[in-house]
């Protein structure tokens, strides 16, 4: 049988119902038929399996047969039937056997089929033209090492190579295509490629037309200022001066389409400024132009009233002007903390799901916050709220800030000052007002934020202060003094345990260990959480170990503020150093009344003694002595003079003063005598006998000169009255 057809392939488009497809070429056996279902849109093909997906009839017939599909191909699929004969030879001629024509012809048919099959594959392959010399190689580069590359003819023109591309440069240029009389024009473009240099050039012509309508909603502006529906497709303001307008009246329609739902979203932001409204000229966006802040809106009948605040732009627009209206929404205010609503009740009760209430209607007088166990998102937050008292700072656990959502200028800040109480379905938080601004309205959305304070400092001993003054064990973790006026206290009574139960007796009893007995150290008692309240004492005596407590001998130094009974306090001790062994009797300053102080400038400073006139200083190193001695007085040198007296002169000493005294004269002793002014005259230390003042006739022999030239005395003076020295004269010369 002859092979009269040269094709061995059939192709059909599916329709989802046809399942039988004819082929018009000869096959030797059913398995020579291969069936592919191709996805038409992508070209992806799937080889089907005989008997599983299809059956074949007509094997051996010169006119072909049919392929019956188990599932009809869809309209999106293409069915391809092809003959693929195996590359084998099954005819075996036996020597001296018959040479049947059918067998020989079948073998020739198969060879023809194989030839056609090879021709088909050759036609679907890259083939070098006849003009290509035999030296040209069409061997393809190895894909496994050239992924992503392009095939190209090598520069020698004799082989195929993998390359990254042949375009070396790309350039582009644009030009405008003018619009004539408003008529539309087509864009132009051209591409030039230089196959020698690899340069690719793009030239584009872009049409430029009139400015189109500005983005946004097209409306008409009305200069009417009445609060009413401005009419379909109209917008008006409550003031013709754009910079004074506070309300925009916008119709629910732009003239054809209902835009009310869009406008209703303009207040969706929880920011105080929910967005910005821009009104621009149309089609010219530059004139007029005005921008407003949007702060709220009201849905009226057939229109919306939008609260606005002028930002910038024109101050007027002509009546019936075509405008473009656009809106830019603000983002929501960043939220931090828990979302609650405010309840204006003040009763000590659960304020309700997701709500917070105060125990006082005046924000600045609130002392307790009542907070529901769940926030507005129905999330249970009670354990978090009840952790607000975990700081060991007893007077300041942290800060609660209650802020109105969308209005951050309305807030209240409170200090948590005690333990949070877990009530039934809500928590009670004790607080002290710190700062607030604005007011709340029932139902206001609030953000509650808590900032915890750090634990109280562990520097020192934690105790509780007691105002009791009795000399006894003050109780576990308690300190008291012997006087309610701390500045007058002289003894502190400190329990053997601190407020945390720790034994501190050994530590306290060491506070008198310093050998500086007059000042063993300093204690400072501070009010925990209020460091500005304190009292400072010097430990001036031995610590007494009593039964369960210690008694400290103190001297008050200074303090500030006051303590109340049961205040939490911190006790801190600073020890004085031991007394130095070389500093027992050393003076740093030597003071002399009426003189400048002599002060040691450093530990190595020396004191120098200088001897004045009439004084000597000697030192003896062996005995560490300094001797001060006065010199005897002389005509050329000041010094020491000893005053001594002989009768009738005597010298007495008292308190550093010498007193010289002379005895009165007598008949038997020299001394001081007085003369009558009737008989004698005294002048400049000289005594003169007045004329006739003394009758010496009976006593004197010889001649005695008389003052003032008197010559009345001629008798001789007795020899026992005068001597050559005149010492016998009782006149006391």
Structure explained in plain terms:
- The chain is mostly beta strands and 733 residues long.
- It has four helices and 43 strands.
- It has a seven-stranded mixed barrel with strand order 13-14-15-18-17-16-19. A seven-stranded mixed barrel has the order 20-21-22-26-24-23-27.
- Mean pLDDT is 83; it is low at 697-704 and 706-733.
Q: Nearest-angstrom radius of gyration?
A: 65 Å
Major sheet details: 7 strands, mixed, barrel
Strand content: 35-45%
- Spatial sequence of strands, sheet with the most strands: 13-14-15-18-17-16-19
So what's the overall shape? Answer: elongated
Helix tally equals: 4
Instruction: Bin the helical content.
Output: under 10%
- Look at the structure and give the mean pLDDT: 83
| Cα distance spanning the termini | 202 Å
What structural category do the secondary elements indicate?
mainly beta
Q: List how many beta strands DSSP finds.
A: 43
Contiguous uncertain segments of 5+ residues = 697-704, 706-733
Could you list some keywords that capture this structure?
single chain, 733 residues, mainly beta, seven-stranded mixed β-barrel, elongated
Sequence-ordered SSE layout with sheet pairings:
Blueprint: E1 9-13, E2 20-23, E3 33-39, E4 45-47, E5 54-57, E6 65-69, E7 77-83, H1 101-123, E8 150-153, E9 160-163, E10 169-178, E11 188-194, E12 199-208, E13 217-222, E14 234-237, E15 247-251, H2 260-264, E16 275-281, E17 289-299, E18 303-313, E19 322-329, E20 338-342, E21 355-358, E22 368-372, H3 382-385, E23 398-404, E24 407-416, E25 421-422, E26 426-437, E27 445-452, E28 461-465, E29 478-481, E30 491-495, H4 505-509, E31 521-527, E32 530-539, E33 544-545, E34 549-560, E35 568-575, E36 589-590, E37 598-599, E38 615-620, E39 625-630, E40 649-654, E41 657-662, E42 680-683, E43 686-689
Parallel strand pairs: 10-12, 13-14, 20-21, 28-29
Antiparallel strand pairs: 1-7, 2-6, 3-4, 3-7, 5-6, 8-9, 11-12, 13-19, 14-15, 15-18, 16-17, 16-19, 17-18, 20-27, 21-22, 22-26, 23-24, 23-27, 24-26, 25-26, 28-35, 29-30, 30-34, 31-32, 31-35, 32-34, 33-34, 36-37, 38-39, 40-41, 42-43
